[in-house]
Amino acid sequence: MVNTERDGVLMNKHAILRHLNMASGACFMITPSDKEESRLPEKLSVSWKVQGQASRSGQQQINSSGRGRGRGREEKKKKKKKKKKKKKKKKKKRKKEKKEKKEKKEKKGILLLPSFILQSRFCKILEILLFFLSI
């Protein structure tokens, strides 16, 4: 049983739901389903069960609006736009990093090329060929 009176004031059923849902990771449901009645008796039986992540999103909707309708249309659009912007930013960053990595690799290749040629057998063979051609 849950006492619906807090600080001497009778709580609204949505307030009770919000309070219970915030207190734990469970999804609470009020047993008496009187939709017209906004106030409840002093003692109230509450049934609850812990569910997966899908129920948690439902629980968040109850918490955000207080009436269990979920987010408003504008709020959803705003969130979607923000997500898109973040994704775009990440993509740009990844592209930039890839480009820098590629440039760094190319620079390394250029720096290594002369020393590689000087130390290789290929260079010695070229020297011998040039020597014979000069005679």
UniProtKB/TrEMBL annotation:
Compositional bias of kind Basic residues: 76-106
Lineage, top-rank taxon, reads Eukaryota
Q: Where is the composition biased (Polar residues)?
A: 48-65
Q: Where is this region: Disordered?
A: 35-106
**Designated name of the protein:** Uncharacterized protein
Which source organism? Answer: Hirundo rustica rustica
